[in-house]
Amino acid sequence: MADPVNLAAGAGALAPGAGAMMSAMSAFNKSMGAETMSEVTRSADRMVASAKSGGFQVTKEAADPIIKVLDNFIERIGGMRFDLRVFDQAPSLGGHDYGKRVALHMQEAASGEGSARSAVLSLLTVLEKSREALLRASNQYDEQEESARDVFRGMGE
């Protein structure tokens, strides 16, 4: 069976601007594909392992501004998670077979492996691991964990 998006593109059936969206998605996939994000995540894992073993250290004063930026992005991506739920359902493109196939393809492109959603969630993981590595490298990790424990202890009382 032919790919519905390729069929539509070949027939000129995509709505105005859809071609640009497809081009952007293709470029995004090439620059931030699943392989690239996997390698970035592995690098973050190696950075955490290095910090745990004392492989690199950084002063608290140097780490804090970077950690603050990472926290900001982690919070912003966390807020986007709700908005990304829109991709949990295929768009309504009619009850006919072609509309259903295109809708399914669009949903898979938006949420599947290599999608922008997947890349954003992978980026969140990388940011969290990078934050952990900096906290460990600046010897603040234990302080942060103890502070979090205190908060949870206070909630249980």
Description:
With 157 residues, this protein is an all-alpha fold. The protein has seven helices and no strands. Helix 3 (34-52) packs parallel to helix 6.
List the helices and strands and how they pair.
Elements: H1 4-11, H2 18-31, H3 34-52, H4 60-84, H5 97-111, H6 116-137, H7 141-156
Please name the defining characteristics of this protein.
mainly alpha
Say what oligomer this is. Answer: single chain
- Kindly state the percentage of residues in helix: over 70%
Q: Kindly state the mean pLDDT as a whole number?
A: 76
How do the helices and strands follow one another from N- to C-terminus?
HHHHHHH
Secondary structure tally: strands = 0
- Measured distance between first and last alpha carbons: 60 Å
Biggest sheet architecture: none
- Low-confidence stretches at least 5 residues in length (pLDDT < 50)? 1-25
